[in-house]
Predict the 3D structure of the following.
Amino acid sequence: MKELDLLKKDWQKSDKSFEQVSEIEIYKMIHKKSSSIVKWILIISILEVLLWTCLSVCFDSNEYLEKIKHAELIGYFEVLNYFNYAVILIFIYLFYKNYILISTTASTKQLMQDILRTRKTVQYYVWYNLAMLVFSLIIGFIIAFAYNPEMDALKNQINGNSKVMAITIAVLSIFSIALFGLLWLFYRVLYGTLLRKLYANYKELKKIDL
């Protein structure tokens, strides 16, 4: 926001040797910066989908299910996968729609509303992905314990041994929290930085609108 601060200082100067900067010019600058931020949100979300797609190809769940001789579960995972991609594509469409709206907005109040809508959309997107991570981990743990023959030795140790059960639950909990924290940090850095800049634009617009 350094450029905006310089513009505001010039605007407040009374010296006639400096060209006065109007509210319209400040609005145009905020408008341009906001449009650029939302465009980057759209681009990053598309790149993120490509990243997760590549990772899913590298770690094929179908191959794992066939290995543990429960290929009948593949159909359920495919439905879940299609549902997940459908939801993510809807979010990407909303990001695109928000970008178009912000790019074509002509009033301060409308731009403020579009910025708030975009922030909410991104927040919902982040929480959806975090929720899907937790859901996937739970399903993965259940399938591993219920169907993977390699877990039989651990299940035998857990039966009637509360200490082994407590250690197992603690290890799984730490692993889940660590993975959740890493993904949350990833979104915090990636989208959080953009959202903070977008909200800073909103606050500047609010000053103009007063």
